[in-house]
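Re: the 384-residue chain
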Amino acid sequence: MSLDSLSRSCYTEDHEAFRDTVRRFVAEQLEPNAAKWDEDGIVPRDVWPKAGELGLLCPTVPEAYGGLGLDFGYNAIVDEEIGYGTDVATGFSLQSDIVANYIIQYGSEEQKQTWLPRMVSGEVITAIAMTEPGTGSDLQGLRTTAKKDGNHYVINGSKTYITNGQNADLILVCAKTDTEVQPAWKGVSIILVEASRDGFKRGRNLDKVGLDAADTSEMFFEDVRVPITNCLGEEGRGFIYLMSELPQERLGIAISAQTAAQRAFDMTVDFVRERKAFGQPVLDFQNTRFVLADLKAKLQVGWAHLDWCIARHIKHELTPVEASGAKLWHTELQGDVVDKCLQLHGGAGFMNEYPIAKQWRGARVTRIFGGTSEIMKELIGRSL
């Protein structure tokens, strides 16, 4: 099984040549270790430099900062091949699709020189700390504060559900630098916090329903002092930066959801061809064929839409509303596909030894992180 049978209008020959490199990495480095990393609850740090050496991390980083200076299509291919080739939640997309762009777009020259080359190489692993206990998708309701004390910020607060939380060397912390200004979003800033800072503590590696290898964690900040120069961009503009960069994050989630759905579908077709019931392959039953035919048609539409989104984003034309629509549609599609595919597995589908069970568990969160499906609908609705 592979994605080669798809005719992709958004990619060039160079993109597809890069795909071969990513596919080999997934097959040789990720998939053979999936079970162990799931059991450990974390992808080991030594995998990151291996990905960096092949150019799989942060391909859009300019050459001046150690990157390849490529377009987002290369990020998309990494997301696709990992999503299709394995169920391992590496955390690479968080670094490449999200954090790198914040530093490229808003970082000072010193911040870019300090962090981007090491992010590209895999020497440094990053996280972004938005979510807090009790706030969820409400970024204006942040309680973490960064108060000025001379030429430093003093950060206090807690974060939760943070991807790469155990491995992260650098955390982009969303905090209130002004707790009085109205509306509240004007007081939000993004502060770079090194994990080595006194007062920073990692909490639990959280026990999740799925994505077992992802080190999703709590974080605590108790009088953590960082220089004011660690502010990303301008103070008080953090919320604007977040809103500006969310489209790429949501597109990345849509890409991973579509490819994971295709993986589940293809595996299920293979399964029902081989599995017999009442003396015949399960695929020979009309209901099986009709369910799979419906899913195949939806996946076909999904790929066409995804290619449209990727092509628009490469040209910097994808709007926040369009990205919200992509995130909503493709994650809901993923949920529908994996649920129906699990059903076609029968009792085997409920056994963790079968890949579909893991895919079903992992799919559930995509309708939550990066903005819930309900928030996506609200954002789309406001544009009407």
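The first strand starts at residue 126 and ends at 129.
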